[in-house]
Amino acid sequence: VQLVESGGGIMQPGGSLRLSCAASGFLFSSYDLSWVRQGPGKEPEWVSSVYTSGRAPYYADSVQGRFTIARDNAKSTLYLQMNNLKPEDTALYYCARGGYAPTFAVPPRTGQGTQVTVSS
Q1: Non-local CB neighbours of 107 within 8 Å, separated by 6+ positions
Q2: What is the pLDDT of residue 54?
């Protein structure tokens, strides 16, 4: 199983970024998938999840209305469109297999992640 994140960078508040996660080594289309982030000095937190069941994607309250998760099963790639970025979005972002549920632990990082820094 390999998950390779890309697309991070340094942005000013209000800017946009699109993160990508290229997956290999498993049947991509069969898995719920998530983006997770870990800010400086913070615990990892769920950001967004997309489900194979067709249920509505999950978004953390802090990103609702600004971030959009998407998947391309043909390319085995997961995306996170991030708009109206805020300084508090600064974090290392990574993708993971599995979707958010209230009782589920935040999945660990298995790839290198991609750093997003929002600063004026």
Answers
A1: 34, 36, 96, 97, 98
A2: 87
| Percent of the chain whose pLDDT exceeds 70 | 100
3-class SS shares of the chain: helix, strand, coil, % to 5: 5, 45, 50
End-to-end Cα, the chain, rounded Å: 37
The order of strands in the sheet holding 2-6 is 2-6, 17-24, 77-82, 67-72
pLDDT tens by residue, 96-109: 999 999 899 999 99
What three-state secondary structure class fits 43? coil
d(CA 83, CA 95): 18
Distance CA 69, CA 24 (A): 19
* Residues 77, 23 contacting (CB under 8 angstroms): yes
> Using CA atoms, how far apart are residues 112 and 28, in angstroms rounded to an integer?
19
